[in-house]
Amino acid sequence: MLSQWLIEPFGQASVRHAMAAIMALAFSGGPIGVFLMLRRMSLVGDAMAHSILPGVAIGYLAAGPNVFAMTLGGLVAGLIIALSAGAVSRATKLQEDASLAVLLLVALALGVVIVTVNGIDIERLMTFLFGETAAKMDPDKLFVIAGNATISLVALALIYRPLVLGCVDPGFLGSVSRSDGVAHLTFLALLVLNLINSFHALGTLLGVGIMIIPAGIARFWTRDISVMIVLAIAGGLVSGWAGLLFAYHEGIPSGPAVTLAAGLLYIGSVLFGRIGGLVWRAFPGRHLEA
Amino acid sequence: MPELRFRNLTLGYERHPAVHHLDGTVATGALVAVVGPNGAGKSTLFKGIVGTLTPLAGSIERDGLDPRDIAYLPQVAEIDRSFPINVYDMVAMGLWRSRGLFGGIGRNDDRRIETAIAAVGLTGFEKRAIGTLSGGQMQRMLFARLLLQDARVIVLDEPFTAIDAKTSADLLDLVRRWHSEQRTVLAALHDVDLVKANFPQTLLLAREPVAWGATREVLTAENLLKARRMCEAFDDTAPACAVAELA
Known about the structure:
- The complex is a heterodimer.
- Chain A is an all-alpha fold.
- Chain A is built from 15 helices and no strands.
- Chain B has a domain at about 1-65 and about 155-165 and about 185-245: P-loop containing nucleotide triphosphate hydrolases (Rossmann fold).
- In chain B, helix 4 crosses helix 5 (about 135-150).
- Classes of the chains: A mainly alpha, B alpha/beta.
- The interface between A and B is medium-sized, with 23 and 30 residues.
């Protein structure tokens, strides 16, 4: 019975594609989420997710439900917002989150106007916002998602050192290298790439869940960044897998299903996490000798 | 031979000077204390020397010095201690100049890192997260990173602030060692007695340079009082400085 619940859905090719896509998302989104959290930008990721809507809508209007057109549209919109926010805050004294807040509000408003004026139907809009229903996915989308995930992982590896040092000791990084600005802008671009990627599987509103929540989970289990990244990927894999099965059996969109699964893992980590979990705080045991 | 030459140097933020019209030279191998009240421009001067801050006016000449030849100890307050990184990795960042963005860390580097960690007395702490270190251990770790940088010029921003006597003494030994190796060392300090005992030269700064030269002659009661009187606040309505035009 249970094994049937777990295995039977994978008889369908579209479900296998969806599962493969969510695995790719977990691998590329997990590390991005960890850096978002460590750079205290978790909500920035959330906010950025809204900014890709007008681009996706324009791509859809231009070429119909074509995954490449929507990817391109979302990328252009997201990059314009991310890079101009980054540039504005580096050139002026305005904090980056403040300039982002302004730009993404404008972008979201523009997206809603484009969607409404052109009469995109409500079902399509729901798919944009929350992802495909019942864990379905066509091979084209899987191809785009896997490709973007690969690009993201390689690029992140290239900027890993300045990204880490820029978080922990920016003054020192500035004294040894001029790579801080490039690394930060590249990171923003990768954030956009991952948001588009998640959008294809999970929708614009909740796609960021598979990046941010696994990072939050990992924080409760380790004090080491490389372990944290591995745990975030693992957390994304488990919640993606459980969430997709949930979406398949209940016939609900993938976005909320995966996000809820990740949320459950997060609650478990808040309670039982070895680093600062509530249960360990409540019952810390006797103090040690040294 | 001068290692660093300041020519009518003004550094600051949004047109407000934090270091105002500084002239002078730092000779190769000099051991210079930079003393002054909070807000006197010590950190700003160091950021200018390191090159992360562009002068508002005047210039810093680094005679034949690559920016890579300058090692910098930022104030501990600027470090995010909650970041999940361990002591070993943090110290290894001192190899940045030779390993750059992508270079791997070989067995030889590994030995150098271990040696530097041992030199500051942190052997056994390699895998500890930096957030679990005490203030003194934190500063020891940053000195290990400086050791690895192996730089001709070393700039220390408040290296002994909120550090106990034993740690200060140990780290001061390293500073003396650098001095004996003919490296140029500049350190921002608040402890006048420590400066008098260990630093041959002092720059007394209070936005304007108050005095610069042999420590005994600079750190007089009169000069210190003068430095303390300089106001800290920026004046938003201040007119453009006329002195800059004369230079």
